[in-house]
Amino acid sequence: MKFLLLMLSLLVLPGLAQAEQLKLMSYNIRCGLCEAQGTPQYWPERKFLLAHLIQTQQPDLIGLQEAELFQVHDLVAMLPQYQWYAKGRDDGKTKGESTAVLYRKDKLQLLSAKTLWLSETPEQVSKGWDANLNRTFTKTQFKELKSGQSFYFLNTHFDHMGKQAQLQSALLLKAEVDKLPKQSKVLLTGDFNVEPDSAPYLALSKVLHDSALVAKDKLSKNVGTFNGFGREPDSPSQTIDFIFVSKNLQVQSYQVDNRRYNGLYPSDHEALVAVVELD
């Protein structure tokens, strides 16, 4: 009897409780009006591949890039377990691409959400520094319903041309992380349009960890994240998409989901997936 009581007491020790995990995805889904009708890349054709990939992965939280609002509507119609937040980068409402956030409404509660611009005037619709296009980041705070824990989630898309804009965007995001309450749990996803040896990546690495480097289980090693729909098969795949986490979080696993469907690509980027321990 004493042995049984001892075993039961051990089972309820806090240190033995399983850490609450969050499955996070970052995915540049390629803008919906960018590909010609009649091609396999045309959004009405490939949206089903993208939805299938998401459905099989079942992430709790998704940061999308290049997501036009009609694309978000299409995906959520096929994936009703998700709620979403997004604002168009060209008017702060519905026009243009967005850095949309999708989340499992049975697991997460959205506490706050805001779209800001990667520019000298983040609160206004604007184009920053030497950027070619308006660029945004979405700043959210969530509560995990089971554990009650809260965390911050940022999702972004850096400019593809402006070198100054890329660096200043990284410094702006670093400042956003720095001003959060001490010991905050922070997740950052995005298409950063820079590689791991770049100054913007190194600036972010001062405050956050690249999940690909710190994951306990590295399910994908040396795998690029941009495929260009395979249009240039001889070109090396670039690593320009990342999932960053604050240094007080453990990453259980990291994966680049680069599946194809009978040779067809869901997007010109791969989906990144990280499992993070919130405790």
From TrEMBL:
GO MF terms, alphabetically ordered: endonuclease activity; hydrolase activity
Protein known as: Endonuclease/exonuclease/phosphatase family metal-dependent hydrolase
InterPro entries noted in UniProt: CCR4/nocturin_mRNA_transcr, Endo/exonu/phosph_ase_sf, Endo/exonuclease/phosphatase
Entry superkingdom: Bacteria
Pfam families: Exo_endo_phos
Ranges for domain Endonuclease/exonuclease/phosphatase: 25-269
Keyword Signal: yes
